[in-house]
Amino acid sequence: MTARTSRRPAVGRSRSAVAAATAVAASLLLLSGCGDQTDAAIAKREAQKNRNTGAPLFKMLPKDIQEKGLIQVGSDITYKPVEFRTNGAVEGIDPDLAAALGKELGVKLNFNNATFDTLMGGLKSKRYDLAMSAMTDTKERQQGIDGSTGKKIGEGVDFIDYLNVGVSLYTQKGKTQGIDGWEAMCGKKIAVQRGTVSHDLAKDKSKACKSGGEAAISIEAFDNDSEAQTRLRTGGVDAVSSDYPVAAYAVKISGKGNDFQMVGGAPLKAAPYGIAVPKDKPQLRDALKAALENAIKNGSYADALKKWDVKDAAVKDVQINGGS
């Protein structure tokens, strides 16, 4: 804070000047007592307050995380019901599972919002300790390769696989236009979230359409799934593809169940979601794996899945890099 000064010669301090200076000093003292009020600073203070050095797996964590009491998580918090905000609070499948892991580890897993296609870069730049964002475990991501371009974009990550899901299609309710699966998408328009398995699958299916002598699929990629849903709701595209839990939630909730309907039968390309950890953090990876195993044993994992109606996606054995 900068105090305003008088342009008169500084012959001596008047009573009013002294009073003003005293008030400014008191204000500064009060502000310093309140401390930094940014979200990051608040998260750090909460982490220290809730740090539990007696938690079952606290000593498995790297020393720097033990000291901070905080694991920074990169996530696209716009992907209902996996992660989203309600009145500012982060909730969903991933945050609930992260809370269960945090109890085993004795530290807080703090979610930081970012677009999905920037999460790998955030890990590389050490902005986050891990990414937990409905991210499918693939060999390309393990090796740090962009699945769309085939280009090397980093050192890659290790995944702790925690859910098994597939990709689904949905349309406007009562307006399927004959879409009963991917084979019927040739010549149609689809919305997807950029950089996801649905995006890659749509590209592959479009190539198959052209190879078979049919029109390509027109693909519109958005930063988040909510934008893709809005595009479908307004009739701008014929269908949306997203992970099954997200598609099922959208069909159930949007317009109180009157906006969308699922098409195409069983989800395709069933694959695991994984918690992505940089390859140079094996100690953190192993601690997270042990925490997930504990959560499965003590029932907190099953409780979280039951809450969000995704029990069928449960894993029985925790694998590292089980995706293909």
UniProtKB/TrEMBL annotation:
The keyword Oxidoreductase does not apply. Keywords: Signal. It comes from the Bacteria. The keyword Signal applies. Pfam families: SBP_bac_3 (PF00497). Residues 70-312 form the Solute-binding protein family 3/N-terminal domain. Residues 1-25 form the signal peptide. This is ABC transporter substrate-binding protein. It comes from Streptomyces kasugaensis.
